[in-house]
Design brief:
This protein is mainly β. The chain is built from no helices and ten strands. The protein has strands at residues 3-10, 14-21, 26-32, 37-42, 46-53, 56-63, 68-74, 78-83, 88-94, 97-101. The mean pLDDT is 92.
Length: 208
Amino acid sequence: MALVCKVELSQTGGLTLTVLNKDGEITQTSTFNGSTIVHICKGDKETSTITQKEGEVIMHIHKANDEESTITQTMNSITHCVTDSVDTSTITQKPDSLVMECKSFTVDAETINCSSTKDTKHEATGEFSIDSTKTATLNSSADVNISAKTNLNLKASADLAVEATAGLKLNGATVKAAAGSTMDVEGLTTTVKGSSMATISGPLIQLG
């Protein structure tokens, strides 16, 4: 394999080194112009470029089908960008932040721990699901608020326990409680009251 090597000197353009591999269809070029250093490796289908300036380094790989990846590093940031003709994913890191933008984000690990010293927010414009094959626990040292603009469903395949050390209130336009077998309503003082009418009915009623 014979290589063609060239050295070009210019008072305005600087220094250019070129190595041509005709058999492998690869051209390597390095250019030094006094302010920027550019290294290019160009092949038949892919081209990689490293551009170095004062305070900035850019590494770029480009394919003939418009796929490319770029890493840009400055003193205060690092940006990773991968793109094709349809999608783009980007990771931007700064001293006080890390931003990830992509179409699909997946984390696969044996154990995951996430913590924040201040607020944490999870938001989805589509569906939001939390699944666990074992016990799932939600604890708060302050209040817990759960609300829904339409229906809210709580369901258990076995027992469902609701307990409060203080008051327990159920409010609704209509309230219905039904049991498939026995229903017990018990308290130290029990009051059944209707503002207009109270009805107790059954084939057999026992009071006292």
